[in-house]
Specification:
Elements: E1 3-4, H1 15-25, H2 37-57, E2 64-67, H3 70-85, E3 88-92, H4 97-105, E4 109-111, H5 121-127, E5 132-136, H6 150-160, E6 165-169, H7 179-182, E7 188-192, E8 203-207, H8 222-225, H9 233-271, E9 275-277, E10 292-297, H10 302-311, E11 314-315, E12 320-323, E13 326-329, H11 331-335, H12 340-343, E14 346-350, H13 357-376
Parallel strand pairs: 1-11, 3-4, 3-5, 5-6, 6-7
Antiparallel strand pairs: 2-8, 7-8, 9-10, 10-14, 12-13
Helix pairs in contact: 1-9, 2-9, 3-4, 9-13, 10-13
The structure holds pyridoxal-5'-phosphate.
């Protein structure tokens, strides 16, 4: 048996999404920019998909730009506005690299976060000023799962940087948070299909009316001249099906998965000595998305643990990345004040709609045995 507990990395495709895309890989293969019947058949599907995605994200169909994924949507938000408006870019220290590297490339600054992985609103306020053109604050963090106070961020931005555009990376939030409602305060919203049961390489950026945006991909003028390139019709149609299924089942999924996540986290905290849970102050997980379980096991290198877990059928991931041969501690954890050494002991077990009780039973057994084995081997 394999327990796939890496839904934050990517999710299995929803059967509805697979079924929706198949005709567009076969008989309905047309290029939606054409005029003949085969093209029109693809165009019709594209229009319907746009309506469905807009409904799920709480915007008008004309405000949806289809992209090649979350990274492109984040890049388009930041570079696209900056190209038109110039000005200063402000992010947070725990953004995904798709945002963080874009902010850095434009000489931007980042707001600090607190020990629980929540943006420090006082520090953010100090960075905001009239010349700020883009503020980028993610809705939910990909490593530790914290949900950011977007309404408070928006209020600060409107007051202190009234000309700025507020972008939110909702890539990790989509399965768990009512993005249509919570991100309504943002001008730009990025999502990625493969994080909620759609295919990889397709995403969307919501661009609310009036936001100035220069295309970063230039060419044939698709997406009303905001993102060129022949549409990935099959991917877009599948994403739309995944949006509908995600939104329809979200409330039940959150309820069911948070019970599984709590059983996993509580079980490991009880069975593994000195286990520490990240971003759950006093055991309170209400500030995190339901699918995130992030733990640190003192003295246990996450890379070694992940290898053992993999051998025993558990797919998980670490809050670290391998850069030029050396394991780097996660920028998210170090921004939260976790020491580099502690950061290298972290494991992220991320659950999704397909996670079962059996997955949790296996993880409870294997993780605690593996940690004990690695500690015994020291
Ligand atoms: N933003 C966040 C928060 C993510 O977790 C990811 C993917 O890991 C991305 C952006 C990038 O999305 P994509 O993989 O579709 O490029």
């Amino acid at each position: 048996m394999t327990a796939y507990l890496d839904h934050a990395a990517t999710t299995p495709m929803r059967p509805e999404a697979v079924a929706a895309m198949l005709p567009f890989l076969t008989e309905r293969f047309g290029n939606p920019s054409g005029v003949h019947s085969v093209a029109r058949s693809a165009r019709l599907a594209l229009d319907e998909a746009r309506d469905a995605v807009a409904a799920g994200l709480g915007c008008e169909p004309g405000e949806v730009i289809f992209t090649g994924g979350g990274t492109e949507a984040d890049n388009l938000a930041i570079f696209g506005v900056h190209e038109r408006r110039g000005g200063m870019i402000v992010g947070t220290a725990i953004e995904h690299h798709a945002v963080l590297h874009s902010v850095a490339a434009l000489g931007g600054v980042v707001a600090r976060v607190d020990a629980n992985g929540v943006v420090d609103l006082d520090h953010l306020a100090r960075l905001l000023r009239p010349e700020v053109s883009v503020v980028s604050v993610m809705l939910a963090n990909n490593e530790v799962g914290t949900i950011q106070p977007l309404a408070e961020v928006a209020a600060l931005v409107r007051r202190l940087a009234p000309d700025a555009v507020l972008h939110t990376d909702a890539v990790q939030a989509m399965p768990w948070v009512d993005v249509a409602e919570v991100a309504a305060v943002a001008d730009l919203v990025a999502v990625s299909a493969h994080k909620f049961g759609g295919p990889k390489g397709v995403g969307a950026l919501v661009v609310r009316g009036g936001v100035p945006l220069e295309p970063i991909i230039k060419g044939g003028g698709q997406e009303r001249d905001r993102r060129s390139g022949t549409h990935n019709v099959a991917g877009i149609v599948a994403m739309a099906a995944a949006v509908e299924a995600t939104v329809a089942g979200r409330r039940d999924t959150v309820e069911r998965v948070s019970v599984l996540r709590d059983r996993l986290a509580d079980g490991l905290l009880a069975s593994v000595p000195d286990a520490v849970e990240t971003a759950a102050p006093g055991g309170d997980r209400s500030g995190k998305i339901a699918g995130n379980c992030h733990l640190r096991f003192a003295g246990v290198e996450s890379e070694a643990l992940l290898l053992l877990l993999d051998g025993a059928g558990i797919c998980a991931s670490a809050g670290s990345a391998c850069a030029s041969g050396a394991i780097e501690p996660s920028h998210v954890l170090t921004a939260m004040g976790v020491s580099a050494a502690d950061a290298l002991t972290s494991v992220r077990l991320s659950l999704g709609p397909t996670t079962t009780d059996d997955d949790i039973d296996l993880a409870l057994k294997v993780v605690s045995e593996s940690v004990a084995r690695l500690r015994g081997a020291r």
